[in-house]
Amino acid sequence: MRYLPKSPAERQQMLAEIGVRSIDDLFSVIPAAHRVDSDLNVPRAHAESEIIDYFKAAGQKNATDYASFLGAGAYRHYRPVIIDSLVQRGEFLTSYTPYQAEITQGTLQAIFEFQTMIAELTGMDVANASMYDGSTGAAEAVRMAMRITRREKAVVAATVHPEYREVMATYSLHQGLSTTVVGYDAKTGRVDLAALDAAVTKETAAVLVQSPNFFGVIEDIPAIAAMAHAKGALLIVSIAEAVSLGVVRAPVEADIVSMEAQSFGVALSYGGPFCGVLACKEQYLRQMPGRLVGQTVDGHGNRGFCLTLSTREQHIRREKATSNICTNQALVALMATIFLAVYGKEGIRELAEHNLAKAAYAAEKLGSLDGAKLLFTGAPRFHEFVLATEEAPAALSQRLLDEKIVGGIELSRWYPELGNATLWCATEVVTREQIDAAANVLAARPVEA
Amino acid sequence: MTNDATVSAASKRVRPHPSQNEALLFEISSPGKHAYKLPPLDVPAVDATALLGAAHREKSAELPELSEIEIIRHFTRLSTWNYAIDLGMYPLGSCTMKYNPRVNEYVARIEGLAEAHPYRPESLAQGVLEVVDLLQRCLLDITGMDAITLQPAAGAHGELTGILLVRAWHESNGNARSKVLIPDSAHGTNPATAAISGYTVENLKSNDEGGIDLEALARQVDEETAALMLTNPSTIGVFESQIEKIAEILHAKGALLYMDGANMNALVGKARPGDFGVDVMHLNLHKTFSTPHGGGGPGSGPVACKAFLEPFLPTPVLVRVEKSAKAPDAGPWEAEGEDPSSADGVAMFRAPSPPHSSTDKVESRNSRLTWEYNRPQSIGRVRAFYGNVGMFIRALAYILANGPDGLRQTTEDAVLNANYIRAKLEDIFELPYKTASMHEVVFSDKRQAALGVKTGDIAKRLIDYGFHPYTVSFPMIVHGALMIEPTESESLAELDQFIAAMRAIAKEVEETPELVKTAPHSTRVSRLDEVQAARKPILRWKKAEQE
Predict the structure, then answer these.
(1) Which CATH number covers residue B503?
(2) Is the CB of residue B397 less than 8 Å from the CB of residue B390?
(3) Is A398 near chain B, with CB under 8 Å?
(4) Given Cys at both, which of A205, A310, A391, B387 links A149, Cβ 3.0 to 4.6 Å?
(5) The dihedral of CA B91, B94, B97, B98: what is its sign?
(6) B104-117 mean pLDDT
(7) A350 to chain B, minimum CA–CA distance in Å?
(8) Closest chain B C-alpha to A117 CA, distance in angstroms
């Protein structure tokens, strides 16, 4: 077996030195009835070339040559080459959680840089070293707000990613949390501010909104913050599209920001691994879950970094910890850090502006066709838009697939009231040619008899 | 001098090698440098201020401005400050720091897999779904369980999922029950998980052998006990030989047996939890199945269970249906490529027709994989989308590289290595539990502590000898624990080096204890002031004038 560094003779030698006759002696503590004496029913050992062939065939079966307008919480952006060059360095790839600070300064400093960049982008004071993803981050943020306020109610906008809301429901199932979902304004696609204001009470721990929201619309964060804070509730802003922060105002009025950083150089990989991250105001730091890296000095006065405030965490506090999270998404956070170093202060803005321009063009092009109409035009949006068509989305989707285009995602699976609406996304990698081609397909809809 | 001043002076210290002086990205940034270039915009530019109005970002985030070579050097230099499996033995007990094969990284980046959007039509995602399906079937066979979800993103996330399954099942029987039993030797994630699942944690004291005390268990299990969370082999590396009795005691009171699969590297191909009474368990793909630890993730924590818990699995669940069944989304079924489950016509499985394999071409051609959402008893989602799919690909590549013989040999070598270390060090270091070791061995620092040198000191000194420390002071049932898990990836020569280092350190403890107590001496930084870090946390860089 090519990963095992021992010869048969060495194994025999080791057994002799241990003082046993055969390897089976070392497994005799497992009751005989429970020992497996036949082969596992898994594929036979494959050569490396066969493994590559297998996965290439799987990849090809996945059809790669389609234009795509899918977004909805997973975004296709260009990934600079050096990200994979650097994260595949064995010193990053095959290292573990930096408990031993003296020999993990590389990982620790990179996380410190990540925390700094996330704090800068989100307008928060501090950020943690990562969460599993945007959905679990949002769920943890709500639980964090419950601990801070000692309240047990949450007000959640219906415009938060539906799968994030499902995860939040699962996480808080046994935490005594009661949730009120607030609808959206039919004209703007923003959370219904009057309904939100009415829903927030002196028992509300947190108001959770997403911006840009699931429809791609940017929420009025200052107004929502005022409503939450007037009742002593915390505002949690979920950000599913991190690139938006290049051009969209940071949610500085929020108390906690939960962000999905996948857009920062992380491959789609059919939905994971992604990179959640929590950021917050300094006063809430000690209720934040997850790892934190802090700056300090060593015995010789040199600057160094170490994991800190671990008394919040499960390995110290056990059942009283802020969360059970242990392993998180460190290597993916490193990808995001490299991505942000590549684009930098000016690049992240220019990139965000390109996204804004592509989506504006696509929305205008598709929305002006006969039989199609843009919804939610009354508020600013980033790179996603909702299109209502006379043609049923399934039929439209099939006609687009015939031309090797994956169109917008059907919204009725989560919002039945939206009928024939589809959610489209145009990032910087979508070309004008692809947008025009999609428009041509839409325009060529069959006329019903 | 204040702490800030100390830190600021420290950052300006010059060391005698350029890679040792690498500053923070923000400190080497200067305005106007770029490492990116966007293609020309092929659509009309927009006025962002006009489009976004009050939502427009006026002040840019203070991200660093650098050229590409500086970024490459920065992160390459930082990487040299890390220890890693690729550099040497990483015997961190409970973490299973085994070799991370590079073909795993290669295949996870294959275009059609790495660029698949989670909402793409299922007709265009059958390739990745085949991968998920095959991994699920392999893991079910390895664990001997009936059903599985790959959605959890890490081990602790798997624990949460598993305990929620337990709770949902009890609720369906009319009583969620109130407590979860956890041995005092358990990982901290176990009690933390039980607590966030709404259970009170009841501690179960280990017996003289570090295992489950059957009498205490029988006393403590009652009609309010939802489950026992058991790590098997335990955190002291011992197999619970009474496992079947443990399951019987629990089941007699209607309680379930949850197994923390962190130590599955001692069992794969040798014993199956499903055969010895486990009802639900999680796996760590980043431990047992070789996906990289990456400095703390990403992981993946699949949860496998018996059939009676299957209705409660998180949504969606991957199912195989007849191709004629109505597709939820339209797609060019006839246009699909070669069936990836068999390469070049050579059978993928060794047995001509494996009992529950559906990978043969005929079946694959007549059926398709689909996500099933309509599952009324489900606990709901634990994560958006379907889990850390990139880790599934790597784990499957590992299983394919090994096959049944390789997986068995891997487990045997892991156990052989731990026992070899035990045999070669037990005359020097106190072995608190004499029970047979599986994949890891736990010593205590009793003899060395009597001379004033603790497990943490010995661990730090090990760094000077070129090894990563073992796990320090865990499990808590062993005072001053040295928890050593070599994994199968260490050669005899590397093990002998490690053993020699441990013996040399033990000698230093007697002769030059100060040398050990002030270690490490060979690293870029010496021991860090963790008290200062926590007392006045500095968690982000700020410009000097902002301070």
Answers:
(1) 3.90.1150.10
(2) no
(3) yes
(4) A205
(5) positive
(6) 96
(7) 8
(8) 6
Mutate which of B113, B267, B338 to disrupt the A interface (most A C-beta within 10 Å)?
A: B113
Residue to substitute from B33, B381, B517, interface A, most A β-carbons within 10 A: B381
Chain B CB contacts of A94 below 8 Å: 84-86, 90, 97, 100, 292-293
Please, are residues B431 and B422 in contact by the beta-carbon 8 Å criterion? yes
Of B34, B78, B300, the CB nearest to A106: B78
Q: What local confidence, expressed as pLDDT, does residue B90 receive?
A: 97
Domain ranges for chain A: 67-78+345-443, 81-339
Cα separation, A281 vs A255, in Å, equals 6
CA A433, chain centre distance (Å): 29
Q: How far apart are CA A381 and CA A360, in angstroms?
A: 9
The token pair at A406 is 């994956």
Residue in B closest to A107 by C-alpha: B295
Nearest one of A355, A141, A172, A131 to B196, comparing CA atoms = A172
What sign results for the dihedral spanned by CA atoms A204, A210, A211, A216?
negative
**Between B189, B401, B474, which is nearest A45 by CB?**
B401
Can you state the angle between helices A330-367 and A105-122, rounded to 10 degrees?
30
Name residues whose C-beta falls within 8 Å of residue A363's C-beta, 6 or more positions apart in sequence: A374, A381, A385, A387, A424, A426
| Spatial CA neighbour of B446 closest among B503, B509, B501, B495 | B509
Interface check for B423 against chain A (CB to CB < 8 A): the answer is yes
Query: Residue B355: is the preceding peptide bond cis (ω within 30°)?
Result: no
Mean pLDDT of all residues belonging to chain B: 91
* Amino acid (one-letter) located at A154: A
Q: Which CATH number fits domain A81-339: 3.50.50.60, 3.40.50.300, 3.40.640.10, 3.20.20.70?
A: 3.40.640.10
Residues of chain A with Cβ-Cβ distance to B131 below 8 Å are 55, 58
Name B522's Cβ contacts closer than 8 Å, sequence gap at least 6.
B463, B464
Whether residue B5 is predicted with pLDDT greater than 60 in this model: the reply is no
What six digits make up the tokens of B546?
Answer: 């902002």
Domain tally for chain B? Answer: 2
Kindly indicate the confidence band of residue B10, based on its pLDDT and cuts at 50, 70 and 90: low
- Is B360's pLDDT higher than 80? no
- Residue A323's nearest CA partner among A354, A292, A282, A369 is A292
Which range scores top for mean pLDDT: B337-341, B360-364, B486-490?
B486-490
- The angle, 0 to 180 degrees and rounded to 10, between the axes of the packed helices B389-425 and B492-511 is 60
Angle at CA of residue A119, ends A114 and A122, nearest 5°: 120
Asked if B481 and B497 count as a contact pair (C-beta separation under 8 A), the reply is: no
**What is d(CA A417, CA B271) in angstroms, rounded to the nearest whole number?**
52
Backbone angles phi, psi at B128, to 5 degrees: -70, -35
Predicted complex ipTM exceeds 0.90: yes
pLDDT at B333: 38
Contacts of B219 (CB under 8 A, 6+ apart): none
Work out the average pLDDT over B96-125: 96
Q: Which two tokens stand for residue B402?
A: 């090994």
What is the Cα–Cα distance from A118 to A101, expressed in whole angstroms? Answer: 22
Question: CA dist B25 to A116, A123, A232, A245, B70, Å?
Answer: 10, 19, 38, 20, 9
Tokens for A208, please give them.
Answer: 């959770």
Q: Which CATH superfamily is domain A67-78+345-443 in?
A: Aspartate Aminotransferase, domain 1 (3.90.1150.10)
Binned average pLDDT, 10 residues per bin, chain A of 449 residues: 97 98 96 93 97 96 90 98 98 96 97 98 97 97 96 97 97 89 97 98 98 98 98 98 98 98 98 97 96 95 94 84 89 98 98 98 97 96 98 96 97 97 98 98 80
Judge whether B400 and B349 are in contact, CB under 8 Å.
no
State the residue range of the domain holding B68. Answer: 3-79
Whole-prediction pTM value?
0.95
